[in-house]
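ingest -> validate -> predict -> emit
validate: passed (alphabet ok, no gaps, 349 aa)
predict: started
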Amino acid sequence: MNFIEIKNFTEQLIAWQKKQGRHHLPWQENRTAYRVWLSEVMLQQTQVNTVIERYQAFLKRFPTIQHLDRASIDHVLAEWSGMGYYTRARNLHKCAQTVVDQFDGVFPKDPKKLEDLPGIGRSTAAAIAVFAYGQPAAILDGNVKRVLARVWGIEEDLSKGAAIKKLWGHAETLLPQTSADLVTYTQGLMDFGATCCTQSNPACLRTSSMTCPFMNICVAKKSNLIQKIPLKVKKVKVLKVDMKWWIVIHDGQVLLEKRAEQGIWAGLWSFPEEISLPKNVQQIDLSPIKHVLTHRRLNIQPKKVVLKKNLSKINDNFSWVAFSELSNLGLPTPVKSFLKDLIQAHDGA
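emit:
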């Protein structure tokens, strides 16, 4: 992997950010380490427009790291519900507890110490160090990898350890010297990759009011390789999964199961997939549900059962939950939607 000399990349990106970058995102205001950390974790797998709304709601419920530390994991997952990739929420909770226990509730400034915290990778650690403390550190998330790979014409597979190690080294050489420039440059990299040098249909290939400052020096553009860089890795096969939900209702309560810590919807509450019911209980097949996850396509068959008498014995990971208490639990999106309709039907009965 060779990096040709490109003069003034850093300076041009800083100038671009000041004119065309984003300046009014909620996490750009009052940039504390807690707020930067929260926004970075949310943005890892969720679109900006969704994060803007959910970030504000999360902060309202957990305004400080101490509030998050004291919260139950169910309450954290409940607030996270609908954003997917729930490992992020569990790591947020673990990280908050670690920072409170080991650092008196104050995130460390050192990127290496930040990287040791639960759920914080090298790029997230760098973002906290830069935005909250003005410490020099390079970020290399998906957007930044794409920008650097295109501008320098890197055609190697960036999922490989050796290639990414070299790109990290190159990213560090581009850092500006002053804290003010460092913040602008880092935000510029994020914004440029998210709004201008996008994965599909970047500004240089479309009619756009947004201009690219690297049009004349970008190797991928000059070599007509924009749509081939970065190298597309082979897609993971999507698996089809057949699933059965038992919708068991008794006396204004619904039976839910806390799922295992591994697998689909780990640690969340869902409907039981297997259950021992009394004989001759009426079972009603409801309309099938289809739900798509990143690597799975779920075909779900809900079966409704209304009990006149309570079950004599249920599994330890089962719990009867009143309809009024469901908002306090972490629920997968399709379960949350199904329960909303179920509650409306129950209230209208």
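The chain is about 40% helix and 10% strand.
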